[in-house]
Amino acid sequence: MNTILSKHLRAIAASAMLVAGSGLAHGQETPTWWRPNQYFVQAGAAEDATALTVGAIWYSDWASLYSGGLLRLYWEISFGRWSADQPDGSTRSAWVTQVGITPVLRWYLGAESTRWFVEAGIGGNLLLPIYRSRDKRFSTTFNFGDHIGIGMPFGEGDRQEIALRIQHFSNAGIRHPNPGENFVQLRYTARF
């Protein structure tokens, strides 16, 4: 199991370096629309699975004052790996690759100087191969991923964030069975 987890962590780390270094190679200037505002890594656990995910965030120009706080829109692209017990009950783990894109609305509580935020988003995800665990079986590779979360920035210039999220994956009844999987996730985000 430790060897499998080690391979999983190396794949996630390699992906993170590719994302982080995409605009830094050879000192070339990256077009503004392509350069992410932030990068993240998150770990999550569900009833039947664990997940490690990396990704990038692009803030849109759209923002609005709402109910005494600031509402902003951002887009995230994520790449993750899920590990779950095999349906046959063996000690081997089933590995699923998750690739997703999600628009997210984030609301900063109170005045702009308030550090806390809440957010919610729903986006499309590919789970390859189709997710199967000891107790659950999805019927499609395409699934929706919706989440709610709470977090806060910290550090010099608020360049880092920590957030706790609850995320649900399912195909919204496109096909059955559709048991869904719910993750509790801890996310670390940084601006470089």
Rg estimate, integer Å? 18 Å
Could you list the spans in which at least 5 consecutive residues all have pLDDT below 50?
16-27
Number of domains: 1
The amount of beta strand, in percent, is over 45%
Distance between the termini: 34 Å
**Molecular shape:** elongated
Helix content: 10-25%
Instruction: Note the total helix count.
Output: 1
Following the backbone from N to C, one meets helices and strands in this order, namely: HEEEEEEEE
Number of strands: 8
So what's the CATH class?
A: Mainly Beta
Largest sheet: 8 strands, antiparallel, barrel
- The name of the CATH topology is Porin
- Enumerate the strands of the largest sheet in spatial order, edge to edge or round the barrel: 1-2-3-4-5-6-7-8
Structural class: mainly beta
Mean pLDDT: 85
CATH architecture: Beta Barrel
